[in-house]
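Below is one record:
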Amino acid sequence: FLQVDINTGVIIGMVIVAFFAILGGMKGITWTQVAQYCVLIVAYLIPAIAISGLLTGIFLPQFGFTFSDIIPRLNQIQLDLGFQEYTQPFANKSMLDVLFITIALMVGTAGLPHVIVRFYTVKNVRAARYSAGWALLFIAILYTTAPALAGFARYNLINTLHNKPIEEVRQLDWVNKWENTGLLKLEDKDGNGRIALTPDKAQSEITIDRDIIVLSTPEVAKLSPIIIALVAAGGLAAALSTASGLLLVISSSIAHDVYYRIINPRATESQRLMVGRVMVGFAIALAGYFGINPPGFVAQVVAFAFGLAAASFFPVIMLGIFDKRTNREGAIAGMLSGLIFTTIYIVGIKFYGMSPWFFGVSAEGIGTVGMLINLVVTLIVSRLTPAPPLHIQQLVESLRDPSHEPLALDDVGEEQLD
């Protein structure tokens, strides 16, 4: 969209994120994320609604995708090209693997630190519960639109590119732009002047990076340039919103939990602030490297992150609410067990060619197994070590009582919580 290469685009994004992450703090980032979500959801819904209306005559994507004939048509096109039906269940993954991926995504969401920290910006528990309900509503709007948009994108791409003269296709403005980035490749391998999409990657003459499907969809559907620009802004807003939240968690965790609590307990607030900002810079640089040299396509990397969150944070969060006997030793042992197992499995499969030996579960779904390991280890170690103090157990019990506010942390004391 900006006619710059991937490396330059990543660097521009790094500078923008660094600007409002370092200068903004918790309050600044929270309000920027509100604005970014507004841009994101509008940018996501408008093209989905427009394309649904064009293809099905129904302007609600969820209903157009479900109740029109677009899916039977797409399935038939897939079969004609030699692919499996678009909606065929478990075509590429086993039922067990799909189940484990689903669980990892669900519980991983509950354990994402940059999501949890958002609840610290509200005044009380009631407001946190209220905001969680609204969050689920807005998440549902986005996620129920995604399958419809993906189906529409697949249908439009095939109809626009398959079996068309290569020179004619290259005259399309969006094809020319994306081909220059290297994320779309067209090759007339058989020399017949036409390009074909086939299941065999070695013979297929069309190669599309999966990360550009949503961004290219409005252009493929020949929507207004205004909508195309809006989608670009929405994609940028989504990236910046997520990045800023993660950077906030990284900086606060390192500066407070590691530097202040372990390395230098006498550190002043300004020293902790400086450490946090340095860690933000380091994290941005590391993220920039992986942005230029991605370990996988976006959806896959996101699944890895959710799996790691499920294996490390979720069991401890759940037990911290529902099990008074869980203590620090159990939580640490459980988190390390789940995290180490899941990390080794993901790295082994992704980078070292290890086969998915655990009943064929993929790297994207192994977080569910890590979560169960974490849960078991936490329960066992907590029972084998001294119980938390009585006032901590009372605090945990008060968390489950909706009739009154739980004990304030100031009343308990930070040292006692440890």
User: Anything to note?
Assistant: Confidence is low (pLDDT under 50) at residues 409-418. Residues 136 and 142 are 10 Å apart (CA to CA). Strands lie at 164-165, 184-186, 194-195, 206-208. The longest strand covers residues 184-186.
